[in-house]
Amino acid sequence: MKLKKHTKISFLNYGIVILFFIVVQILASGGMLTNSLRGQLIPILSYVIMALALNLVVGISGELSLGHAGFMSVGAFSGVVVSMSLAGSIPDPTLRLFCAILVGALFAGIAGVLIGIPVLRLNGDYLAIVTLAFGEIIKNVLNCLYVGVDGSGLHMSFKDTASLGLAADGKVLINGPMGATGVTKISTFMGGTILLIIVLVIIQNLVNSRTGLAIMAIRDNRIAAEASGVPVTRHKMIAFVTSAAIAGAAGALYALNYSTIAPKKFDFNTSILILVFVVLGGIGNMTGSIIAAALLTILPELLRKFADYRMLIYAIVLILVMIAGNNPRIRSFLDGIGKKAKKEGAGNE
Length: 349
What we know:
Layout: H1 5-29, H2 35-61, H3 68-85, H4 93-119, H5 126-143, E1 146-150, E2 153-157, E3 171-175, H6 189-207, H7 210-220, H8 222-227, H9 232-255, H10 268-281, H11 286-302, H12 310-326, H13 328-348
Antiparallel strand pairs: 1-2, 1-3
Helix pairs in contact: 1-6, 2-6, 2-9, 2-10, 2-11, 3-4, 3-5, 3-9, 4-9, 7-9, 10-11
């Protein structure tokens, strides 16, 4: 019995993640993994998850979001607060990481609902404009946010640390524009890999479900989908909120890999970087997003030995990839492969 096309793609994605994990473990056990590359492992996993999340909106839903760094920052700082607040009651770092990721995803999902309710009823580029504004608003709010914890619980202020009114045993968790300092690094490569596999399971099952087919039908022809009785707003909301929650989980994983994390890290440039991963990997192509995010995250580090020229080489590589992707012969070749696979999949059904 031959597998269907989407099943093959799902297994391919799982295989890439598992192979990456095995290769890293072999390199680490053999002492061949440099400190710089070791430090890039969690960012690579975080950016891959972010690329998958954004591709769910851009590729599957057909909407353009320019503020996914905002959802990432919501998950990052809420995850940091949870992790540092529970340090005494939950000493196990693995369990604390799980709680931080879960809370980060929850808060980012709530933010996605608040943004999606008014915007997803509209057509055109309104979502891109609003998400762009959302990302900037969140960054500025976090620049003014002060959070502390003591024996009586959490304290919050938008003035300064003195306004928190912490007891003598209190600790400042978020210090305005300085962000979160003194964070205990609990993110692990194993935990990030498990999170990535869970995200792949969620996204691939959503895309291949009836809901996913309805979302893609809305993307292809909104009017025809509405005429067929498909609830457009609800299905677009499912994709958008799921994407926001996944971005929040990636943010929590990313933030808990550093001892200090500032709001400026999650600016407009980060959103554009994630969008670049999606575009170069192929809009709607989850396998391409995984590969592009991983390679383009690690590429600047691999080129670091070229010092003055590494960013120039990085830019040239991006340009060459985009030229190759728009080359008629290459596109024709890839389209031929896609049509052949589609015919085989139809024949197997």
